[in-house]
Every structure is written in structure tokens, then in C-alpha cells.
Amino acid sequence: MPANPPYVFSAMRAYLTRRLVHSIIIIIGISMVVFIISRITGDPVSIMVDFTTPQEDREIIRKELGLDKPIPVQYLIFLMNAAKGDFGNSIRYEEPALDLVFQRIPATLRLLVFTIGWSLILAIPIGIISALKRNSLFDLMGMAFTFIGQSIPSFWLGIMMIMIVGVRFQLLPISGYGDGDIAHIIMPAITLGAFGMASFARITRSSMLAVLDSDYIQTARAKGLRETFVVIKHALRNALIPIVTILGLQIAGLLGGAVITEQIFAYPGVGWLAVQSIYNRDFPVIQAIVMVVSIGVVATNFLIDIIYTLIDPRIRYDKGK
Amino acid sequence: MKAASYRNVRFIMLGAIILFAMAMGFGVPIAECKTRVVVAQGVDPTKLDPDMHRENPTLNVILHIYDALLERDRDATIKPDLAESWEVIDDTTVEFKLRKGITFSNGEPFNAEVVKYNFERVAGLLPDAKKTLNARDYKSIKGVNIIDEHTVRIVTNYPDPLLLAYVSEKYIVPIEYTKKDNFESLANKPVGTGPYVLKSWVKGSELILTAKKDYWKGAPKIDEVVFRPIPEDATRIAELKVGAVDIIANLKPDNIQEVEVKENLAVKYAPSARVAMVFMNSDMDKLKDTRVRQAVNYALDVPSLIKNVMGGNAYRVSTVAPKSFVGWDHQEKFYNYDPQKAKKLLAEAGYPNGFEATILTPRGRYLNDVAACEAIAGMLNAVGIKTKVEAVEFGVFAKRTQAHDMPEFMYAAWGNSTFDVWDTIKTCVRSGAMFSWYKNEKVDENIDKAAQTIDPQKHSEYLVNALREMWADPPFGFLYQQRDIYGVNKRLVWEPRSDEDIDLYGAYLK
């Protein structure tokens, strides 16, 4: 492979620097929105203390939490501490908020890996076969299947799975984490992944269709290459590019979906912690979760941008600058 | 050629699935031969330091690990526990004789020194100790005097009629263990004298307690008690149905049937300590007249509310003291549903055409709160009080009512952990109190006298007097006490309590 000319690297560097600056601005913007929302939705002290706690005692707590200071000052303090990884103590658990989030991250990551794994394993073959056997019965059924996957709300799917797989046939444990065994993750992963699987299958199908019609595929076939080789090596490889893009977008969506899925299956991840903290108005934890998750999403998208430029030599970000 | 390509795709797919499954690792279930009971609650416990938590789900774990000097039996009567007996010496002194030969699970002895240390901690008298979350309950305590190794006296700054109730809620922790790191370890590695010890706690997943075979009251009959947090109602019920969970609390009336039809399950009930009432704002001119507030009570068809809105899951209360409370009136009288009389009283008070009003309620805080308010508004409308319902989120509700901002009416189901009605009326009825919109000198006098009397008989008499006065000149529309509903696996012999505690010492498997 010939070495890239130096201008490509400098253009890449400029592009990546620009993206990095954007990312930082996005994260600061998110921090501001989260901070403001968690302040305007009500008084955390009223949730923390007993209903009958007198006003004087409330004021003491408010002072301890720094809630008596003006909002912009509170925000600056929050930002400075957050930069040091200090989001304050959880109101409910009285432990550092960030520690609570980090305790829950492995479970959520595991769920995400499993979810993306099964949905790709199922979606790509469905997409390929549907594209190859366009308008066949398989294609029709495959697309109907993915249509259902895309239209079913995940909370409904989760509860139906609990009722049918868990209660009626008792094939899988209904909720919890167990010992981290595979049985406990199957239903949450299916619930969480149904939508993404359907999108992946549809994208694979349509991009395969586009690729299969192109001249170079005709050329490859004309050269007398085996069909498998043509499909896997020539067509799929090119069709994968939009799938990688969608994957990046899906991660943010999956994290959102994890909130509902984890709650339904009592799966001890970040999503469940988020719901619980919102109920308890545990704002240090809410802030820590949103910051950690948004940094994660922004970083993933940043990484995917880099991967994108690497796997597809046609894409040059200096164009149209 | 095409067929070959599908075979390949299939092969790749299968291979990938197998590899993936192997990578994630299959779990192997472990066989259990011990008796084990699983309790599902909505949330995980917070801290197992008995003085540093605020929630019932945490308390349910704590009460298996620790003991208190006194305990309540199922009828809420106070009984001896770590204290063999107690004696009221004078209005500000109570003496406790302690049980001998009891040790904590780490071997430390239980004695007078321990009791002094514990009450000094919650009263804020222990130097260097952080303020505890239950400190407000013990603020009357002036000090603890050790008479001998097994006798202590708690001295208060003023007569405190709730002292014994709060002593029964004070779980005793050891000295040496907590001293070495200023109570830090207690939160995750509790040490108590109770029937169970903590075996393991995977936060967010499960907490396991194991029975202490040498427990001083006798070994528990259930070897392991497991607490699992499951936030969704539907999921908790599903786990109960398949037998993975034995007890679930807060079953909704709508789900009773679903549980009842299963052969292996039972629905159990306990009267709750939560009493629902319609607060009336007598600071407003239209509600100043006693007759108007009586009219409201005649307009309310409480039996119908209990039957149709609460699905039978409530018990009528004549005032605000249910039967299990100190201050309950044996000769209780009820307002009979009488809309004609209500209209007449309104007319006499100068409102022949009624008036317009609003009833404020939190949304989803209490059992069927909004539905109850809609029914109440309908009943008031029928006598001419044109009432509209204003349902708000609890945070808003709390903020408004704490700032004394209430429309004509407000619906609340008032909790009371002390089972002493004085605790309710000192906050909701005594004039000038935080949640009082009422003024009646005779009631105030009786509340104040009850406050200074710790003799149970006399204390109770003052309360009965206050409640009778309140019945005649009502501060509230009197309603009902809620009923707690549990789903239970029939293999377990266990009865719920009216203080919402889930106590498995004494329970056993069939």
C-alpha cells in the first residue's frame, strides 16, 4: 500500500482537532443543561428529609450542600469539582457519586456488548440473504421480522418476555444479575437489541443491494470468482461502511434504552441507577451519570470517526472545507 | 454456486454464535439445601448503620441484624427486648434493666456502657461522632446514667411521651468495633446482637443474611434471608409467581387477583399506620365556621370510598387515630353519610348555594390518591361545594404545603411510626404547627398536656379528649387508614405487621 501523502495527515490532524474541540464544547453544554434541569425540577432537600422537618433544619442541610449559593456560583463550583472527578456524595447512599456510577458501569458495558453482539450476528446474515434473494419469501419474512423489531416498544417486549419465557415456560431467570451468568443477560439483551438488530438488518440489506448492482461486482463475477468470495470479500466489505456509522449512532440510543431495560429486569447497571436517582432527586448521582455517559458517547463517536477515515480511503475530511 | 454461499453464511453465523456464547461464559446454578427465603423490595438498602438510614427497605435488613432495648409486637404494643424491664422513675427519667450474657456477633459484650454509648451517639452527646439521621427523634435526651453494669437511666431535658417509642426504634451497635473508625465500617459490615449476620452484599443485586445459631432468643428457623431489589411491580409479581421470590410488599389493589389465583401464592394484609384525611383550611373565611367543616364530613360517603376507590383496602377511622394507636377512643363515633344534613349545615352557615373549592393532592404518592380525590370532589359537589382536583408531583406538593400554601382542601395519608396519635396531631392540629390550619383552644390544651405527661394512662386520656373535641369541631374530613398488601408464597408461614417492617425471625417454611 502506498504511503499517504503528508497533506492527508495534516488535514486529518486539523479535522480531529476540530472534532476534539467540538466534543469538549458539547460536554460543557451537556453539563450546563444537566445542572440547570436538576436545579429547576424541584428542591432536593424536600425529598431528602422527612416531610415534617422544620424549615431551620432544611436550611442547615441546604447550606451543607451549597444550595444556598447563587446558581451560577453553584455551577462553577460543580464544574471545577467535576473536572477533578468529584461530583459530590450521593444523597441517598452518602457515598461519592462517581464511585456509584463506576460500580455499575461493568454490568451495563456487558449488556451493551452482548446486545450489539447478538444483533449483528443475526442482522448481517439476514440482511445479506435478503439482498441476495431479493423479493423472495425469505426477504419478505426477514423484512417483516425486522419491521416488527423496529416497531415493538422495548418495555412491552420486556414484559412480554418475562410473562412468556420467564413465567409461562420458566426457561430463563426473570430478573437480576445472578452470578453474572449468561442466563440472566439473555432477556435484557434481546429486549434492548430488538430495535438495533432490525435497523442493522435493514441497513445491511439496502447497502448490499446498492453494492451488488455496482460494476465492480459484475467485474468480479465476470472474472469467474466464486459467488461466496464475491459476496463476502467484495460486496459485504463495502456494505459494512454504513453499518459502522449506524453502530456509532446506536450506542447512544442503546444507552437510552438501557434505562428502561435495566429497570424492567432489575439489572444492576447505570440505567437503573439513573432512574432511581431521578426518583430520589439524587442530583449528584444524576449529574455524574449524565457526564460519564455523555463523555462515553462523545468519545465513541470520535473514535468511530477515526475508524471511518481509516477503513474508507475515499472519505477525506479535507474536502469541502 | 449460490447454495454454497448460503451454507457458508450459515456456517459463519453458527460459529460466531458459539464463539460469542463461549466468550460470555455460561453460568452453572449452585444447588441449595439450606432453607432460604427471598424478599423482593423496590430498592437496595443504603447503609446498614441503623442510625444512618431513612428508608423502610433498609430498616427491613437492619432489624434482622440488630436488636433494640424494646420492641413492638404485631399489635404495636411495646415489649421488652434487650432490656428485661423498664420503669418510669419520674417525668424525665426512665430506668432500664438490661439482659445479661448477651454478646455481639464479633464477641463484644452488651452492657450498660454500650447503651450509654448508643444513646449518646444519637443524642449528639458523643464527641467527634457525626450527626445521625435519626437525631431529631432523640433530641430530648439530656444524658444516660449507668447505675450498674446492667442498669441504665435515660434522662431527658423535658417530659417526652414518645421516648419509649423511639427507644424501641434504636438498634444497638457495639463500642469497640465502631470506635476504631468512627462508625464507618458499620455501613457495609454491620455487627449486632440480632438473629442474623450479613453473609454477602452485592450492591444492586442481592444481600444475604445467615442465621445466628446461638441467637439469645433461639436460633431462627430460616437459615438464609435474601433481599433483592426489583424496581418494577410487574417483574416482582412475575418472580413471585415462579417461586424465585417469597415476599413482595406494596402489592397494588389491581394486582391482587392475579396473585390470588395462583395456587402457591397468598395475598396478606396488614392495617397500615398511614391515615388518610382531608385537611381543611380554616384560615379561610368559608371554612372558619364549624358547621361548614361538619358539613364536609356529612357529605363524605367513606364506606363507598373504601369499597369503590380503595378496593376494600382501607379501614374506616372515626378521627385520625386507628385502633393500634395510643389515643384511640374506645367509644368512637362516626359521621354518617347524610348529604341532606350537610346541605342544611351549609345553609345555616350562610352558604345555601355552597362555594367553590380546590382539593390539592400529590399524584401517586399515596394509594389511589388522585382517584380518591376525584370521588371526594364528586361527593362535595353533590352538596354544593363545587370542588376541583389539583394533582401535583410530590415535590411540588411538599414544597407548597410546607410553605403553608394550601387551597380549601388537601388530601394526605399521614404516616406515623410511633403509633401515638400525639405525634400526628402535634404536627397537623396544634395551632401554629407546621401542617396545621386549625385553631381550637381546648384541643391545644389537651395536646400540650399530653406532651408533658409520660404516664401512658394519663397521656392517652388527654389524647382521647383532644380527639373528641376534634370530632365535634373537625379540622379534617375523616377518612380511613390504608391497608398494606403483600404477596407471599404459601410455603412460608409469616404474617405482615402494621409498621410495614418485614421481620422473618419467627417465620418458618412449611
What would your notes on this structure say?
The complex is a heterodimer of chains A (321) and B (510). Chain A has 321 residues and is an all-alpha fold. Chain A folds into two domains: 5-83; 102-311, MetI-like (MetI-like fold). Helix content of chain A is 76%, strand content 0%. Chain A has helices at residues 6-40, 44-48, 55-64, 71-83, 97-132, 137-151, 154-168, 183-212, 215-222, 227-264, 270-279, 283-311. In chain A, helix 5 runs antiparallel to helix 10, helix 6 (137-151) crosses helix 8 (183-212) and helix 9 (215-222) packs across helix 10 (227-264). Chain A starts with 5 loop residues before the first helix and ends in a 10-residue tail after the last helix. Chain B has 510 residues and is α+β, with helices and mostly antiparallel strands. Chain B has three domains: 67-187, Alpha-Beta Complex (Dipeptide-binding Protein, domain 1); 196-270 and 485-509, Periplasmic binding protein-like II (D-Maltodextrin-Binding Protein, domain 2); 272-483, Dipeptide-binding Protein, Domain 3 (Dipeptide-binding Protein, domain 3, Roll), CATH 3.10.105. Chain B has 15 helices and 19 strands. In chain B, strands 1, 8, 9, 10, 11, 12, 13, 14, 15, 16 and 17 form an eleven-stranded mixed β-sheet that branches. The longest helix of chain B is centred in the N-terminal third of the chain and has 23 residues, at 2-24. Chains A and B meet through helix 2, helix 5, helix 7, helix 8 and helix 10 of A and helix 1, helix 6 and helix 12 of B.
Element-level helix/strand string of chain A = HHHHHHHHHHHH
End-to-end separation of chain A: 27 Å
Distance between the termini of chain B: 66 Å
Helix/strand class of chain B = alpha+beta
Q: Any idea what the radius of gyration of chain B is?
A: 27 Å
Largest sheet of chain A: none
User: For the record, what is the CATH homologous superfamily label of the largest domain in chain B?
Assistant: Dipeptide-binding Protein, Domain 3
Largest interface (CB within 8 Å) is between: A-B, 63 and 52 residues
Helix percentage range of chain A: over 70%
CA-atom Rg of chain A in angstroms: 24 Å
Query: Please, how many domains of chain B?
Result: 3
Number of individual domains of chain A? 2
DSSP summary: helix tally of chain B:
15
Percentage of residues in DSSP E strands of chain A: under 5%
Number of helices of chain A: 12
